[in-house]
Amino acid sequence: MPDLERRLSVSGHVARLEESRSVPGSWTLYVDGTPQSHVEVERPDWLGFEYVRRIGHAIDLVRPDGAPITAVHLGGGALTLPRYVAATRPGSRQQVVELESELVDLVREHLPLPRGAQVRVRHGDAREVLAKLPAGLDGAVDIAVVDIFSGARTPAHVTSAEFYGLLVPRLAPGGIVAVNVADGAGLAFARSQAATLAHVFAHVAIAADTSMLKGRRFGNVVMYASHDELPFAGLPRRLASDPAPAKLVDGAELHRFIAGAPVVTDATAVPSPPPARSIFLSKPGR
Predict the structure, then answer these.
(1) Helix (H/G/I), strand (E/B), else coil: 154
(2) How does DSSP classify residue 285?
(3) Inter-CA distances, 37 with 40, 50, 149, 174, Å
(4) How far apart are CA 226 and CA 143, in angstroms?
(5) Is residue 232 over pLDDT 70?
(6) Between the CA atoms of 83, 88, 92 and 93, what dihedral angle is there, to the nearest 10 degrees?
(7) Which end of the chain has fewer surrounding CB within 10 Å, N or C?
C-alpha cells in the first residue's frame, strides 16, 4: 500500500493525500487536517476548490486564450494551479516556491506533473526566494499567485506591504497578483490585506461569496492586484456561474470594504486567524 502521508520537517505538520472513493483520480491534499489542494489527475483544467477557481479566472483573463504566460506560484500545495496553467496555456514558464520539500516529494511521487509541463520548483521560504528569483523574471511575470499557508494559517511575514512590494518589479505590464486570504467573522484580517494591496498596487479587486463578505462565516477571499487596470469585464459573469457563486468587489464598493482598515507592515503583521478545527476552508464540488 503506498505511503500517502509525510511528516513535514519545517512545520512538523502531517501532509496526507486522499483519493475519493467515488471518483477515482480525484485527490485532496490535507496539511494538519486542513484541505489545501484538490487535483483531478485526468482533468488538470478542472478546478474543484471554489477559491482556486477564482484564481483560475484571473489566469484565464490575464492574457488571450491559450497564450503561454510566465507564472510564479508562492506556495505549492499539490501543484493544482501549475497543472492548470500547463493544460490551458501550453508552453508557459512557471516557477513554484514551496517551503516544505517533503510535501513536494509526496505530491510528485503520487501525482506527477503532466509530461511537458515547464515547472521549476524552488525550495525555501517564499519571501526569501522571491527576493532571489532570477533577474530574467523582472518585468516578465504575468500572474503571481500567493497562496501560502502553514497548516490553516498564513504566516505574518508574507502579509505585509514590504512583502507585496517584492512582487512589484517582477510583474509584466498588465500582470496580476492573486492572493488567497482566509478569514472569519468581521473580516478584519481580509480588510487589512485589501488595504495593504491597495497601498502597494494601483488597482485592486476581491472575490468572495456574499455570506463571506458579510462576515458570517470563516472562508476564503481571493484578492487581485495590478499596476494596470484589471481585465475583468467578464469576471462577474464567470463568478456568478461557478458551482459556488461569488461576487466581485471593486471600485467604490472596495473602498467601503477597506475603509479604516490599517495597512500591514513588517512591524505590525500577524498570522491569519485560525479556523475552528471542524471547518473545511473549501470543498471540491462538481
Answers:
(1) coil
(2) -
(3) 10, 11, 11, 27
(4) 10
(5) yes
(6) -20
(7) N
The CA-based angle 29-80-64, given to 5 degrees, is 165
- As a three-state string, the secondary structure of 90-149 is CCCEEEEEECCHHHHHHHHHHCCCCCCCCEEEEECCHHHHHHCCCHHHCCCEEEEEECCC
User: Rounded CA gap, 33 and 278, in Å?
Assistant: 10
User: In terms of Cα–Cα distance, which of 223, 234, 182 is closest to 199?
Assistant: 223
Percent of the chain with pLDDT over 90: 87
For 74, list phi and psi in degrees, rounded to 5. Answer: -95, 105
Q: What is the pLDDT of residues 201-225, one digit of tens each?
A: 999 999 999 988 888 889 999 999 9
Amino acid 276: pLDDT: 66
Q: Which one-letter amino acid corresponds to residue 104? A: V
Task: Concatenate the DSSP letters of all residues of 26-79 into one string.
Answer: EEEEEETTEEEEEEETT-TT---SHHHHHHHHHHHHSSSTT---EEEEES-TT-
Q: What is the spatial distance between Cα 220 and Cα 200, in angstroms, rounded to a whole number?
A: 21
Answer whether 0.90 is exceeded by the pTM.
Answer: yes
First to last CA, the chain: 28
Residue linked to cell 482556486? 52
For residues 97 and 169, the answer to whether their CB atoms sit within 8 Å is: no
User: Rounded to whole angstroms, what are the CA distances from 75 to 100, 129, 209, 284?
Assistant: 9, 11, 23, 19
User: For residues 271 and 286, what is the distance between their CA atoms, to the nearest angstrom?
Assistant: 32
**Predicted pLDDT at 45:** 95
